[in-house]
Amino acid sequence: FLEFFKELLENAEKSLNDMFVRTYGRLYMQNSELFKDLFVELKRYYVGGNVNLEEMLNEFWARLLERMFRLVNPQYHFTDEYLECVSKYTEQLKPFGDVPRKLKLQVTRAFVAARTFAQGLAVARDVVSKVSAVNPTPQGTRALLKMMYCPYCRGLVSVKPCYNYCFNVMRGCLANQGDLDTEWNIFMDSMLLVAERLEGPFNIESVMDPIDVKISDAIMNMQENSMQVSQKVFQGCGQPKTLAQGRTARSVSESGFSARFRPYNPEERPTTAAGTSLDRLVTDVKEKLKQAKKFWSSLPGNICNDEKMSVGTVNENECWNGSAKSRYDFAVTGNGLASQVNNPEVEVDITKPDMVIRRQIMALRVMTNKLKNAYSGNDVDFIDISEESSGEESGSGCELQQCSPEFEFNATEVTGNSNKSDKNVNTSAATRSGLSQAALLLSILFLAMQRQWR
Fold first, then answer.
1. How many helices (H) and strands (E) would you count in the chain?
2. Which H or E element spans position 241?
3. Which residue intervals of 264-317 are DSSP H helices?
């Protein structure tokens, strides 16, 4: 998405520049910085800059009116103060017709949706990354060790854990992760809603692709109504001073503002950004978002469905139940921390939620609100997300100079210190095994996540 949107903006700028050079020649070249500034600000907004889109677009049309007013009235001398007065009449006179109003609406909605959606993808990535770095508790490590290796002590080397036994162990080990599910699903629904905005009439591709034609239509509208506009401005701002005759003739000759705009033929347009189309990108990512729903609640099942982890649901009497080769009789506990109060396999302190995961829940909640605002067409503050959800630390994991500022959602800082309670494991052998099992659990989680995201 980042590659696509950036290239889309670059193509739109190149298309406008090429067509305006061809149509208006030196006249455009002398005023090209006005249009370059427009695209600089659009790009700056997209990558998270503090840009008010409406104010920026109003400023663009006011500056364009000042330049145009000089060109259509080359016989007069205009001071900077006079041109400031002219710009005040932009809204009242509508010298560019209805183009500025329509373009402002289209650009604002398209950019708000595109930027917020790309930011949402970054949030999903960062949440998964940070949660997958959470260390298992010593109790979870012991339960996993007992489930995977204690059958060997009984000589049951080929017997795998019972399916429901595995479920209870994983529900206990992933108790905090299970609490992510509700907010994660709401977040995914909000992402899918904003994705609809990327497919509708205000999608960024359909807005940016013809922006050169729209701006040229506005310029031609000003040309055709220049006399009426000028007269109304003269009435409001006063009659300007006339230039000397020789300078007037030279100014008229230099302006030559009679060119007519000819848009590109379809085959002349730049190739589609990133070699794809927005429709294809959105269709693909929507499918992935739908698959990612209920990811955290289904994680224990995804792990236990692996044939290396349990026997599955077929041989319920021929499996390791934690003490013997027999049926597992305990009921399966629910998802989430509160449901583990009666977990028979993992001792879980439900009064001490994992703060890393709690901060990710908060991060998802903050981003969901921004997505809902974007869906309604309201601009959202890009920069203050980290302030609202990071806790004490930025959590980016890199120096400012080295990190791209684009879509870095700093939800939390994950500490790498081992839990001090690891020291409570009774023997050094058990400690070594426990640590190896912690690594195994993280590997299992990573593989399960990777498989589901594919």
1. 20, 2
2. strand 241-242
3. 278-292, 295-304
Tokens of 148: 């995977």
Structure letter (DSSP) for residue 424: G
Residue 77: beta bridge partners? 241
Instruction: Name the residue among 45, 320, 291 with its Cα closest to residue 158.
Output: 320
CA 394 vs CA 46, 383, 405: distances in Å: 21, 13, 13
Structural tokens at position 437: 């099992």
Antiparallel, parallel or unpaired: β 76-77 and 241-242 = antiparallel
- DSSP, res 244: P
Q: Which two tokens stand for residue 198?
A: 């990327």
Q: Kindly state the helix (H) or strand (E) to which residue 436 belongs, with its residue range.
A: helix 428-453
Residue pair 206/83 in contact by the 8 Å Cβ criterion: no
The amino acid that residue 153 corresponds to is C
pLDDT in tens, 8-51: 999 999 999 999 998 888 888 998 999 999 999 999 998 888 88
Tally the residues of the chain: 454
Report the distance separating Cα 245 and Cα 253, nearest Å. 12
Tokens read off for 226: 């220049």
Torsion over CA: 420, 424, 428, 429 (sign): negative
> What count of other Cβ atoms lies within 10 Å of the Cβ of residue 324?
12
The reported pTM is 0.72
**Residue 92: partners with Cβ closer than 8 Å, 6 or more residues away:** none
Instruction: At 395, list the tokens.
Output: 């959590």
71-128 pLDDT per residue, tens: 888 888 888 889 888 888 778 888 999 999 999 999 998 999 999 999 999 999 999 9
Domain ranges for the chain, please list them: 136-194+289-376
Task: With H, G, I as helix, E, B as strand and everything else as coil, classify residue 242.
Answer: strand
Residue 3, pLDDT > 70, answer yes
Neighbouring residues of 95: CB distance < 8 A, sequence distance ≥ 6:
65, 68, 89, 221, 222, 225, 229
Q: Give the bridge partners for 241, in sequence order.
A: 77
CA atoms in the 13 A half-sphere facing the CB of 446: 11
Query: What are the backbone dihedrals phi and psi of residue 157, each rounded to the nearest 5 degrees, phi first?
Result: -70, -25
Region class of 139: left (phi > 0), else alpha (psi between -120 and 50), else beta: alpha
Q: Per-residue pLDDT for 183 more than 70?
A: yes
| Cα-based distances in Å from 169 to 196, 222, 303, 335, 345 | 40, 72, 11, 12, 6
Give the containing element (helix H, strand E) for 76.
strand 76-77
Nearest one of 138, 151, 143, 131 to 333, comparing CA atoms: 143
CB 358 within 8 Å of CB 132: no
Report the C-alpha gap between 417 and 420 in whole angstroms.
8
